[in-house]
TrEMBL record:
Keywords: Repeat. InterPro entries: ARM-like, ARM-type_fold, PP2A_Regulatory_Subunit_A. The keyword Transmembrane does not apply. The gene is Ppp4r1_0. It comes from the Eukaryota. Residues 11-30 are annotated as: Disordered. The lineage of its organism: Eukaryota, Metazoa, Chordata, Craniata, Vertebrata. SUPFAM superfamilies: ARM repeat. GO terms for molecular function: protein phosphatase regulator activity. This is PP4R1 phosphatase. One of its GO terms (cellular component) is cytoplasm.
Amino acid sequence: QSRDSVIHYIHNDSDLSTSSSFSPEEERKSKVQDVVPQALLDQYLSMTDPSRAQTVDTEIAKHCAYSLPGVALTLGRQNWHCLKDTYETLASDMQWKVRRTLAFSIHELAVILGDQLTAGDLVPVFNGFLKDLDEVRIGVLKHLHDFLKLLHVDKRREYLYQLQEFLVTDNSRNWRFRAELAEQLILLLDLYSAKDIYDYLRPIAFSLCADKVSSVRWISYKLVSEMVKKLYMASTPTFVVDLMNELVEKFCKCHKWSGRQTFVFICQTISEDDCLPMDQFA
């Protein structure tokens, strides 16, 4: 009966919409919820107790982190106050595997909690993960677009300044990190204005086009072609003209053969994907 009521609650409650209708005052009123038996929730919350890790299972904090989005979904966003302290404890856990688990699911939790709680409680944790080990950073990088699209436009623009930092990794041989960055930047083109794309994403894209690993470069050619397409469709034509002129200067006239080859591949991708009318391409 208890299980049925939980399922009924999940499917019918309006708290799964993307904007929070609960004020911070209402969320602080009560520390007790009535969705699941309180003893069950207390047992779950006690999994972050360090003594449990020593006596029960060293992986228990990781299991707790893995289950947290599901628990949050079941309880609903009006009961987030029950989980908030546990989430912050896990986010600062000494084991990187625990933080990595949270990093991979923070975008899912943001959908569950809505924009207000995300901005107040998840963004600080997200910012911490951005400065963490590569094993943790890859979690937020793989779902960067999924998380940023949930933020308010002004908040989203703040991350433009930090995207450059993803080019720096603990291990320069970690080329998959840069390949993932290129993939995410293609998705991020839809979230930013033509000016922001030209000012912030263009330099990163050009850097990735000159990467030492061919897999990264191939994704980057697609990124540049999509950038050309997006800027061509913008209301200000100067951005796409400046971008094309820079492609010619930086790659077509490059003194290294690899740079000139890059120009040919970018042209190929632009023409194959119909990113420009043929008269503009010419």
